[in-house]
Write a structure and sequence with these properties.
CATH topology of the largest domain: D-Maltodextrin-Binding Protein, domain 2
Number of domains: 2
Order of helices and strands: HEEEEHEHEEEEHEHEHEHEEH
Number of helices: 8
CATH architecture of the largest domain: 3-Layer(aba) Sandwich
Distance between the termini: 56 Å
């Protein structure tokens, strides 16, 4: 019985010990929350975290000798945890002045590509010679469908505001917006290239049904960061940033 108790004690001690990297330094174990936001990060069919941005950040954590323990969590709950005293992190957030009061941020991990116009392939002729969003908005026969209250960023929002006569506002989701595009309630919509294919698949449409048009006057998208709670030591954030710089 005493021997069994000693084994339990030894196992407990081993589990309570910090992890060490090859150089003998302490390897930080860190809980990392992620949103269900494909294709950036999501839980795949095997119940594992996945996504192109998840894979990049996971590689950075390991290069920095930080052992991430991942957990999917809704955005609102993540922000609540960030306000607490736990040492946690979360993937892919925008850095805003209000969030900087209760969280630390890594260097940028990704910059979204410029928005594109998404239209029906059969309407290709309407987009001949079009090079900018301003061109589209100035055409009376071309109508933009957009989500009511959704912001595309200051520059794009300003262009839209100047041409409200060729804009249809929709209350709903991007999935609903796409369905209305297919129903020809308007001529085109704006979408992030990274999210386009996932949106089309979720609504069970064929990609052949659609045409994507690049627009010269739309700037690069928002920067995304890893957000750390204030309880995470600065040294851990610095290690992450140094490892991030080594990636191509």
């Amino acid at each position: 019985m005493a021997r069994f108790g000693m084994i339990i004690l030894c196992c407990f001690c081993l589990s309570a010990m910090p992890l060490f990297c090859a150089a003998g330094e302490i390897r930080k174990v860190l809980t990392v929350y992620y949103l269900e936001f494909p294709p950036y990060y999501f839980t795949n069919s095997r119940g594992e975290p996945d996504g192109f941005l998840f894979k990049k950040v996971d590689a950075v954590f390991h290069l920095a000798d930080i052992l991430p323990v991942y957990e999917s969590m809704p955005a609102k709950r993540i922000l609540q945890v960030m306000h607490g005293t736990e040492q946690v992190a979360s993937l892919g957030w925008f850095k805003t002045p209000s969030r900087m009061h209760y969280a630390k941020f890594s260097n940028p991990i990704y910059e979204n590509r410029p928005l594109e116009a998404l239209a029906l392939s059969k309407n290709t002729r309407f987009f001949s010679g079009v090079t900018s969003l301003a061109d589209l908005l100035n055409k009376e026969e071309m109508v933009l469908g957009r989500l009511d209250g959704y912001s595309y960023g200051f520059h794009v929002d300003s262009l839209i505001q100047e041409n409200v006569s060729t804009v249809t506002n929709v209350v709903g989701s991007f999935g609903q917006l796409l369905r209305m595009l297919v129903a020809e309630r308007f001529t085109y919509m704006l979408v992030a290239p990274e999210e386009k294919d996932v949106l089309v698949q979720q609504e069970q449409f064929s990609t052949d049904l659609f045409l994507s048009v690049s627009l010269d006057d739309i700037p690069m998208g928002n920067l995304r960061y890893v957000m750390f709670s204030l309880a995470v030591p600065d040294e851990v954030v610095t290690r992450f940033n140094m490892a991030l710089e080594t990636l191509p």
